[in-house]
Amino acid sequence: MPASYALLFPGQASQKVGMGRALAADSPSAAAVFALAEEVTGLPIRRLCFEGPDRDLVRTEFLQPCLAATSLATLAAALEESGAQDPSAPVSVASVPNPPRALAGHSVGEIPALAAAGALELRDAFKVVAERARAMAGAGEANPGGMLALIGGDLEGAYALCELVDAGGPGFRLGVANLNAPGQTIVAGAPEALKEAADIAREWGFRRALELPVSAAFHTPYMEPARSRLAELIKDLPVRDPRIPVVSNVSGDLISDAASVREEICAQVVAPVLWSRSVQLLSSEGITSFFEVGPGNVLSGLLRRIIPSARGIQVGEPEQLRALADSLNGTIHG
Q1: Are residues 169 and 305 in the same domain?
Q2: Is the pLDDT score of 276 beyond 50?
Q3: Model confidence, pTM
């Protein structure tokens, strides 16, 4: 019987001070992932994750590597718990008795997904996420912007609102950045454009327009300098065909070859995250259970809005590992 479950890896907004601390204390595999993350990135990953403070953890250049490390440490701990871990590939889920049908990650979460699929070596995944974080933080400083959550309404209204505001000045001003779930779309752009959008959001059918606590317009053309830096890095890194399909944030389709992985890593930072479409695709593939691997439960909440009948299982603490370990072993099939 084929697996009917998928692994989901969270992005920014899922973090909390203390994430991963209990896992690293209980699991040698998790501790080793955190140690490797520090070695590769040169950042105090364990201090930031375990102790904070929050004002440091939320900085883009720190937060993205910390999230990736916590998610991959969580997966390593679950694989260790399952007894099916490959010592030469401690976060790969491709060779377990009952591998997941597919993987997906929201924004920076796509990098852990690619590592779990075997497309990136663990060390190289940390190289990518560290450069991505630095490059996106730098692009945000060069092109100040922000993000706005539109609650209620529909996607057509979000695009129309962005088109109206974007036309109000030269160059890029505002665009759709995250299609998270029905009734929740994130737009991003210049500060003055965000204010204009917030002021007229109700006229376009949105109940609320909430400014997000970020200082950059992620997943928009403002991130073009980051795309260029990632392209320079990725050309020299070994990338393999994913051994398990990964859903593209950019297209909402499955990625199954190395060339597409290289393209995705670069394009993703300037393109909207098609999360709702990604989850719908997984459901159409017969997947009924979704493990959120890493801190928080943001993706599980979005899942309930996208596919109300789906089963979301959060895996971020030692006591939550068993369910995923059993699925990896085929003890349960989702």
Answers
A1: no
A2: yes
A3: 0.96
